[in-house]
Amino acid sequence: MILPDDDFDEDPGYAGDDEDEIDTGDLEAMIWNLLVLINPGDEESALRQFSLWRDGMAEAQGDESQALPILKDAIDWSAGFYVDWNDTESLVDSIEELAARWNLDIDWGGDPSDDDFLDATDVPALMAVAYDRLREYGYTLWNWNTDGDAYAGWIALSRDDEGMQQLCSALGIEIRPASDAF
To answer: Recorded GO terms, molecular function (predicted)?
Structure first.
């Protein structure tokens, strides 16, 4: 297991622990800080995803209502997950892919390659298991409200939980720990 040594980026979009200090007028800075949080210790990936997000925003002609869907696409399977409400197999695969970035293995409480195991559970239950296992290593699995029939989220260092909540609030992204799925 590798725990990155870097903390939450003190970028202009996030001035400190007080929510009032977040510059909510600088969407790019807030997105950058979110990408730093969900790519701990991997600024190269954060930069690549930020570039994809900026390109998507340029195509959307700066329409801020498209910021989250574009972010979802920029981080999918590299720093985030987005799965249908009943797609347990994709959830397991995506979480394992994300956790592998830090050489973490998740004990799912059964064989995730066994169709019977996957059929006997659901996405929220698996997210709760992954949340518990990742907390043991100092990480938090988050899920955000998709307002639809899907589950989405990312992994960040547990020490950044408060910063994650404040930043997502400023971005208008409703998040919860994955142990409490939407």
So the answer is: catalytic activity; flavin adenine dinucleotide binding
Question: 165 near 171, Cβ under 8 Å?
Answer: no
Residue with structure tokens 């801020």?
Answer: 64
User: Measured between alpha carbons, how far is 159 from 170 in angstroms, rounded to an integer?
Assistant: 19
Nearest to 31 by CA among 141, 181, 167: 167
pTM value is: 0.85
Cα 68 from Cα 60, distance rounded (Å): 12
Dihedrals phi, psi of 40, to nearest 5 degrees: -60, 130
Token pair in block for residue 80 = 């985030």
- Tokens 């992994």 sit on residue: 155
Q: Which two tokens stand for residue 124?
A: 């929220």
* Phi, then psi, of 153 in degrees rounded to 5: 175, -165
CA distance 25 to 48: 23
| Pair of tokens at residue 142 | 């988050």
Q: What is the pLDDT of residues 97-146, one digit of tens each?
A: 999 999 999 999 999 999 999 999 999 999 999 999 999 999 999 999 99
118 and 100 Cβ atoms separated by less than 8 Å? no
Counting every residue written for the chain, the total comes to: 182
151 forms bridges with which residues in the sheet? 83
Question: Can you tell me the distance from the alpha carbon of 61 to that of 87, in angstroms, rounded to the nearest whole number?
Answer: 33
Helix axes 27-38, 161-171, angle to 10 degrees: 150
